[in-house]
């Protein structure tokens, strides 16, 4: 089942000095249960692509479909709702709210979804347990290590039970060992919950975890070794 589909995506940033062709015609399908790594060097268009897939930014040309519906035809309010319900986001710099505890950070998207208190508690406890942070639930982000912060961010991305999690350099601020643990955690959650993951990174060591490995170079996708399992 296809969750997200991008067709003919181009993105041009116009600055005073020049036009930057960040994406030059990208096609991509994200299916249920996928674990996709998109690897590319700095400036190749990774963040731009994730922002367009999540509906945070609009393409200059092309279309993104969520559950078959074109995003461009939806009003802003409806796009926001879809993003909130269907897509979880994880960032390099965690983006946690500093004044809230780990538990409150994870709970926050459920407040936006107006989920009632007892359901919120149940879901937050369950996902904090899954990422191994129940015993640190009352700490603020400043009292957590980088890896722990990223686990809170992953819990926050998953608590709404999205179809897909889009992660932008999720190991970028972590040492190699911690980064590997974070990817292994994502791998397990992908397997246990059948949530799709798309990880964009310049870190080549993450490639080994990909079930679909895509390279991005200069705004274009190079789909070599597209499905490692089916080709094995
Ligand atoms: N708002 C913007 N205005 C102008 N150019 C931009 C803007 N955002 C990105 N770019 C340019 O678009 C290209 C792709 O940028 P993008 O951030 O998507 O790359 P990236 O692969 O995520 O890079 P990094 O790994 O360094 O984060 C780059 O040349 C970048 O300079």
From TrEMBL:
It holds the Pfam family ABC_tran. SMART domains: AAA. It comes from the Bacteria. Keywords: ATP-binding, Nucleotide-binding, Transport. One of its GO terms (molecular function) is ATP hydrolysis activity. Residues 4-232 form the ABC transporter domain. GO terms for cellular component: membrane protein complex; plasma membrane. Signal peptide: none annotated. This is ABC transporter related.
């Amino acid at each position: 089942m296809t969750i997200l589909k991008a067709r003919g995506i181009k993105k041009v940033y116009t600055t005073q000095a020049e036009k930057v062709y960040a994406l030059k015609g990208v096609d991509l399908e994200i299916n249920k249960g996928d674990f996709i790594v998109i690897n590319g060097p700095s400036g190749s268009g990774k963040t731009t692509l994730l922002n367009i897939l999540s509906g945070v930014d609009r393409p200059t040309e092309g279309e993104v479909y969520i559950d078959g519906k074109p995003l461009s035809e939806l009003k802003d309010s409806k796009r926001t709702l879809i993003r909130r319900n269907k897509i979880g986001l994880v960032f390099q710099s965690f983006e946690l709210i500093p004044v809230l505890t780990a538990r409150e950070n994870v709970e926050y998207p459920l407040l936006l979804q107006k989920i009632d208190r007892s359901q919120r508690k149940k879901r937050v406890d369950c996902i904090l347990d899954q990422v191994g942070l129940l015993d640190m639930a009352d700490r603020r982000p400043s009292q957590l290590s980088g890896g722990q912060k990223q686990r809170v961010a992953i819990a926050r991305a998953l608590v709404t039970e999205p179809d897909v999690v889009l992660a932008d350099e999720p190991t970028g601020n972590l040492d190699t060992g911690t980064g590997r643990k974070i990817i292994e955690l994502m791998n397990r959650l992908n397997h246990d919950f059948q949530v799709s993951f798309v990880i964009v990174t310049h870190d080549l060591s993450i490639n080994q975890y990909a079930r679909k490995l895509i390279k991005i170079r200069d705004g274009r996708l190079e789909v070599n070794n597209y499905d490692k399992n089916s080709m094995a």
